[in-house]
Predict the 3D structure of the following.
Amino acid sequence: MSFSDIEGAPVIRVSKPPFDQLESFVNSELSEDDGTAVKKSRIADIALAVGIKEKARTDSIEDSEQTFNLGSVDNYGVLKTIIEEKHPDAAPDELRSLLVEYLEGGLQEISEQIENEGVFRYHEYLDYDN
């Protein structure tokens, strides 16, 4: 199964407080030269990538929620493909739930790092040669 088998335009929900914390950090560090804020869906991509890399999954969502259209998260499908490969037998609804769990897990990882160190060390998650 794959994400392309999901019908309609499903909405996903994640915890708002850690999302807002990450959004604030990202926009203070990485906003466009003209001051344009980074799109919320790209911030969700960052959290999703961290969740996948750290194998961090959680299904606990705090009271307030940040919502996204599933299609706006990872619109190139790279991270969704990784989830599909990690969970080849997952049905479409399970894939959607897994994406939320990884995204939420990434938000929690990043939130803890910001709380403990005062910064999100995003460069530690990039695999590149200097």
